[in-house]
Amino acid sequence: MPGSELTPRGASAPRVTVWLIILLALVVGLALWSLNVGASRMSLLNVLTGDPDDRLSKILFASRLPRTLALLLAGSALAVAGLILQMMARNRLVEPSTVGTMEAAALGLLVLAWLAPGAPLPLRFALVSVFALGGTLIFLAVLRRIALRSALIVPLVGLVLAGVIAAAGALLAQQLDLSQSLRAWNSGDFSAVLRGRYELLWLAAGLTVVAMLAADRFTVIGLGKDFATNVGVNYGRLMLLGLLLVAMISASVVVVVGAIPFIGLVAPNLVRWLCGDQLRRSIPLVALLGAALMLAADLAGRLIIHPFEVPSSGLLAVTGCLVFLVILIRGRKQWA
Amino acid sequence: MLPHALRRGLSVTGLLLATSFSAAALANETVTIQHSSGETEVPVNPQKAVVIDWSTLDTLQQLGVTVQGTPSNTAPELLKQYRDGDFIRAGSLFEPDLEVLQSTQPDLIITGRRAQGQYAEVAKFGPTIDVTPDPKDLLGSLERNTRLLGQIYAREAEAEALISKLEASVQELRKLTAEQGNGLLVLTTGGRMAAFGSGTRFGMIHDVFGLPQAVDNLQVGRHGHSVSFEFLLEANPDWLFVMDRDAAIGREGVAAAQLMDNELVKATTAGQKGQIVYLDPVSWYLLDNSGIGVMQTSVETLIEAFSAANR
Amino acid sequence: MGLTLNPVWRLSLLALLAAFCAVGFMTLRVQTDWGFILEYRGPRLLAMLLVAWAIGLSTVLFQSITQNRVLTPALLGFDVLFLLVQVVVLLIWGAAQWQGLALPLRFGLEVLAVVLLALLIFRLLFSGAVRSLHLLILIGILAGILFRELTDLLLRILDPGVLAIDRGRSAASFNRINVSLLGVSTAFVGAASLYVLWIWRKLDVLALGRDIAVNLGLDYQRLVLRLLVVIAVLVAAATALVGPTLFFGLLVANLAYVLMGTQQHRWTLPASVCVGVICLVGGQLLLEHVLASSVPLSRVIELVGGLLFIALLLRGVRQ
After folding, report:
1. Which chains touch A (3 or more CB pairs under 8 A)?
2. Alpha-carbon span B79 to B58, nearest angstrom
3. Axis crossing angle, helix A153-176 with helix C133-157, rounded to the nearest 10
4. Does the beta carbon of C134 lie under 8 angstroms from any beta carbon of chain A?
5. Where are the transmembrane segments (chain C) (predicted)?
6. DSSP H/E element including C200
7. Secondary structure, 3-state, A47-85
8. The domain containing residue A311 runs over which residues?
9. Nearest C-alpha neighbor of A115 from the set A128, A103, A104, A102
10. How many domains does chain A fold into?
């Protein structure tokens, strides 16, 4: 059982605290930098020192701040969603974009564009959530049928399922002549985020807080159904809660900016590497690291061909793939 | 089977002799056409013409010509005469169906930009002309194509009339754009934006209509550059032109207007003066404004927009 | 199963069905003269036959060497390797210079590079450094994703003209077959097949596993090495013609095993080729001429093959 056998080091409280401070500083630094970078000429110093005219404050409050907040919220929510999913699948090599959750959500957007274009936001969110839930459920149902789980078969099944759902979506998009739109939804970026266009992510933030509070109990899930029942946890209800959290967080991100890959995989694993497996204490670290990764990717996307943009999802997919490969190859002995 | 024109000629008894004579003469007559991929000798008034290019169908429609073959895709609304009926369906815009060309033996084939790579292949099946516009001279290409179509269908006078009407309109538009400040064109799809500048497929607005660019360093790239709303604010165009790609393929296009309805766009000069123009994606995207009918409409729409701003 | 047919009959039925598909592909909805059809549909049919041949053969051989029904060259990222070599070659030489070389020479050099790289990877994989099968497949799939995303990213950052690589090739397409490579690939596939024909009697012994095969007097090491070269050549040829096909080999080989009901190579090798032809030519026939649909066959194969892969994993784990 990868979830339990990989607990060589416990997280010592001082170590977690040190990393908490480091990551917090990193996130604050990146966030300030993010406020300072954009297509418009506006630096924070102008706002702080000079007399901020209307244009400057508009850029800050209508564009930079919302974008930075959206990055923070989406990054931390996805990282925590990845962690919850890993506990439910009892495997640390899965995350929403590699098991079909995100792909199913994008399929949901496609179905919306087909059957109910111009549907109001709550309806969009609800329907996309249902799709994301469906995708995750299929994955977990398949997992359940695998009695003897090798650590690597889980991400493998997930990746192939994600591929199958993506292929189904691509087929439908081709029929509907919406291939380019599906491509846009599948490669998330924050270029269109503005005040009034990202607030759904606050809901994701709320869900993240719930997830963090319930993290203790999810640790129990990782130890198996029997164990969980023995210590008095309602296993079924907890699994449902986890499913809802993962699906709704993924759906809110996909609805606002499109699919964002690999944060849910990279952040929890890096935190494990830094501080060991005691997730109860290190879950704030996971959220912070997710936010930092998201901010860094988007900043790079804004800077590479400034003033034009490169979607942050592309940068994340490349780095995420590399990190995934490194994790696999470094840990090859324990997978065998 | 008698050629179509000949049958029609025979039915008009009063002009029997003259008409059948001229039809017979026409059937043998050919004209040499200079086009984008060389020089081809084609029959005048072809009896079985296959056109794999929407914009050419538009120009021919303006000339009052109905051809016998079209692309297999559903025709856009403005070419609805080709939607139903007994037409040769010659494959997609990108990949003409060579088997259909072989079996129908057209006496004229016309290909456009999207099938330019297949010109040599297609030309094996009959006299073929390529009307791909020269990206550096879009208006000149359009006029050349209109003239050559007029020549082929013996409607030179009509072609010249259309061209001089368009030229007059373009002159009028240029006069208007000279005093309108600058402009920027963005394409929207799936909730994102890409900017297009001079020299791109939508560069006509700067290159032909003479509106200065709001941003200079928009490199030439077929798919444009992904941009943010801040970019629009920084570019601060006097005119913002928005094209909804999703609407070009028949999806309802409220999305682009919703996307643009925000405080940063409103803070640009274009937003403040209400100078945001939603371009017709069928003319601009699907037909590349390369048919004289859609081009005339596009020019008139812009004249209207700019004149309204002057008032 | 009430009805048991011997392998001869089963293979004959498959061959008949494959031939039926091929004939159907050539004759359905013909509106023009036969000379043209032969000239136009002929090369496409030939290319599909060649791809079915190359992928069927290479997958069954590979599965015999690895003694595993889930592993295929494509799943290990073999075809992605071919694309990677192409990109690297383009970047080093520049498109114009590279295109100046004669086609067979170009293709030969690319295949050579793939074979060398593949052998290097195999050395790493089978030397015991990496033992888990699932790890191999995961790494292969991730390498594929990485390659796709990296190309996409580079295309966005660089000027589109700089990377003069045909983007369509990063996904399989049976509509746009690279017919100009038909002659060269036929030669390579032919040579590889001749070698297989030469040693086919040893294959059943090989499939028994290293220890037994060595005990039975087989020069195991040398045979495996040569077969790996053969597989690399076959995969390179198929990829050059239609692009990467992730699950196609898996689908074809496993269907062949099930349909033949035997593991003997004299049956499974031809059967996998027949099944490949039925899937490719029959599928294309159905989509293009019967349904008149623009849906690409490669996507349908991706979908069905993915589901089969999951089913195989589930079954394999439960056993």
Report:
1. B, C
2. 7
3. 40
4. yes
5. 12-30, 42-62, 74-95, 107-126, 179-200, 227-260, 267-287, 299-317
6. helix C182-206
7. HHHCCCCHHHHHHHHHHHHHHHHHHHHHHHHHHHHHHHH
8. 67-330
9. A128
10. 1
* Three-state SS at B111: strand
Averaged pLDDT for residues A153-159? 90
Q: Are B47 and B107 in contact (CB under 8 A)?
A: yes
Name the helix (H) or strand (E) containing B185.
strand B183-189
Residues contacting residue B239 through CB under 8 Å, at least 6 positions apart: B180, B181, B182, B183, B184, B211, B270, B275, B276, B277
Low-confidence stretches of chain C (pLDDT < 70) are: 1-4, 95, 125-131, 158-176, 316-319
Q: List the CATH number of the domain containing A222.
A: 1.10.3470.10
> Does residue A212 belong to any structural domain of this protein?
yes
Full set of structural domains in chain B with CATH? 30-158 (3.40.50.1980), 178-310 (3.40.50.1980)
User: Would you write out chain B's pLDDT as a tens digit for each of its 311 residues?
Assistant: 444 444 444 444 444 444 444 444 455 689 999 999 999 999 999 999 999 999 999 999 999 999 999 998 888 889 999 998 899 999 888 888 888 898 899 999 999 988 888 898 899 999 999 999 988 888 999 999 999 999 999 999 999 999 999 999 999 999 999 888 899 999 888 888 889 888 888 888 999 999 999 887 776 555 677 889 999 998 999 999 998 887 765 555 457 888 898 889 999 999 999 999 999 888 998 898 999 999 999 999 999 999 988 77
Helices (H) and strands (E) in chain B, counts: 15, 12
Q: Which residues pair with B129 in a beta bridge?
A: B110
Contact A147 C157 (CB under 8 A): no
- Going by C-alpha positions, the residue among A142, A161, A183, A169 that lies closest to residue A100 is A161
DSSP letters, A102-161, are: HHHHHHHHHHHHHH-TT--HHHHHHHHHHHHHHHHHHHHHHHHH-SS--TTHHHHHHHHH
Q: What is the full DSSP assignment across A3-27?
A: HHHT--SPPPHHHHHHHHHHHHHHH
With contact defined as beta carbons under 8 Å apart, do B133 and C61 qualify?
A: no
In the stretch 150-189 of chain C, residues with CB closer than 8 A to chain A read 150, 152-153, 156-157
Q: Which pLDDT belongs to residue A271?
A: 92
pTM attached to this predicted model: 0.87
Instruction: Give the residue from A330, A335, A304 showing the smallest Cα distance to A318.
Output: A304
pLDDT over 50 at A205, yes or no: yes
Instruction: Tell me how close the Cα of B288 comes to any Cα of chain C, in angstroms.
Output: 21
| B255–A117 CB contact, under 8 Å | yes
Please tell me the predicted confidence (pLDDT) of residue C172. Answer: 66
Of B189, B233, B250, the CB nearest to A181: B189
Inside any domain, residue C319: no
Rounded CA gap, A200 and A126, in Å? Answer: 12
Identify whether A25 is part of a domain.
Answer: no
Into how many domains does chain C fold? Answer: 1
Instruction: Quote the CA–CA distance of C257 and C3 in Å, as a whole number.
Output: 17
CA distance B22 to B43: 14
Cα A61 to Cα B124: distance, rounded to the nearest angstrom: 62
* Domain extent at residue C140: 7-26+37-287+294-314
SS3 state at B38? strand
What is the reported pLDDT for B222?
57
In-domain check, residue C135: yes
Whether residue A315 lies within 8 A of chain C, CB to CB, comes out as yes
- Residue B248: predicted pLDDT: 62
How many whole angstroms separate alpha carbon B37 and alpha carbon C249? 42
Pairing of strands B225-227, B276-278: unpaired
Across the interface, whether the CB atoms of A38 and B227 are under 8 A apart is answered: no
3-state helix, strand, coil in chain B (%, to 5): 50, 15, 35
pLDDT for C127: 66
The answer to whether the peptide bond before residue B71 is cis (omega within 30 degrees of 0) is no
Report if residue A186 sits inside a domain.
yes
